[in-house]
Amino acid sequence: MTKLTLGSYPHLLGFEQLERLLERTTKSGGEGYPPFNIEQTSDYSYRITLAVAGFREQDLSITVEDRQLVVRGRQAEDSGERIFLHRGIAARQFQRSFVLADGVEVGEAVMENGLLHVDLTQARPETIVQTIQIKKG
Description:
Blueprint: H1 16-27, E1 36-42, E2 45-51, E3 60-64, E4 68-73, E5 94-99, E6 104-112, E7 115-122
Antiparallel strand pairs: 1-2, 2-7, 3-4, 4-5, 6-7
């Protein structure tokens, strides 16, 4: 079976970067931890919410790397003084990545009740009409 690429379609010119973006997005899925929500808060703004129970602000880092929002969590090592009879709350490190479109900017991040909220805004697109002059050859 032949893999169809955006370059296979003659009317789609210059979409190679989009194809690479789609491939990168499918690879950044991760293992499903921590769970998250993405909500649209207005026509041009979004909020990503990650469930990070047990993590403190200093255990988390948020960076934007090559148009990719990366949230990492790493808790300090337990001193070993506690004895668990059952340990169902995950305390492992994680990395969650979200690919950002051009024009999407990361706003503030807020920790609230074990949830990390990251706000995003997208620049409003401008409508541009360009007329191309035809020269005689």
